[in-house]
Amino acid sequence: MPTTDPTPFVCVLCGLSVSDPGPDHQPRDHCPSCLGSRHVHDQHDGGASDCDGRMTPISVVVPRDGRWRLVHRCVRCDELSESAVASDDNPLVLMRIAVRPLAEPPFPLETLGEV
Ligand SMILES: [Zn+2]
Ligand SMILES: [Zn+2]
């Protein structure tokens, strides 16, 4: 997925100044500390977005290749985006996002024993 996001940038969520391309030599599209992002890329049209809203990480997905991808949702327009997890992304924040559904199941855990 091509990205038009410029690095360096200042994280709109935690204020971290993200200046280096990171160990993966990929352009960063999210903050390696809080994993927040900014809505500057239009997922539907593929071009730049004029929304500019904050994007919070809401989930991780694991495709067949096993490399985690991070799902962001824009707080302003609710658009979803997906980006590759960088190898120096904050592992604690990643784990917190990944276990959230397990920690808060929408049904009582006892029902699992009855299936
Ligand atoms: Zn941040
Ligand atoms: Zn947006």
Give a brief rundown of this model.
The chain is an alpha+beta fold and 115 residues long. It has one helix and six strands; from the N terminus they run ββββββα. It comes from Nocardiopsis exhalans.
Q: Tell me the helix content.
A: 10-25%
Order of helices and strands: EEEEEEH
Bound molecules: zinc ion
- The N- and C-terminal alpha carbons lie at a distance of 41 Å
Provide the number of structural domains. 1
Biggest β-sheet strands, sense, barrel: 4 strands, antiparallel
Shape: globular
Q: What does the oligomeric state look like here?
A: single chain
Q: What is the total tally of β strands?
A: 6
Structural class: alpha+beta
Radius of gyration: 16 Å
Strand content: 15-25%
The side-by-side strand order for the widest beta sheet comes to 3-4-5-6
Pfam families: RNHCP (PF12647)
Organism: Nocardiopsis exhalans
InterPro entries: RNHCP
Domain RNHCP: 8-95
What does this structure look like?
This protein is of the alpha+beta class and 115 residues long. It has one domain. Helices cover 11% and strands 22% of the residues. It has one helix and six strands; from the N terminus they run E-E-E-E-E-E-H. The chain has one helix at residues 91-103, and strands at residues 9-10, 17-18, 37-38, 54-61, 69-74, 80-84. The strands form two sheets. Strands 3-4-5-6 form a four-stranded antiparallel beta sheet, covered by helices on one side. A two-stranded antiparallel ribbon has the order 1-2. Strand 4 and strand 5 form a beta hairpin. It is globular. The mean pLDDT is 87. The protein binds zinc ion (2 copies).
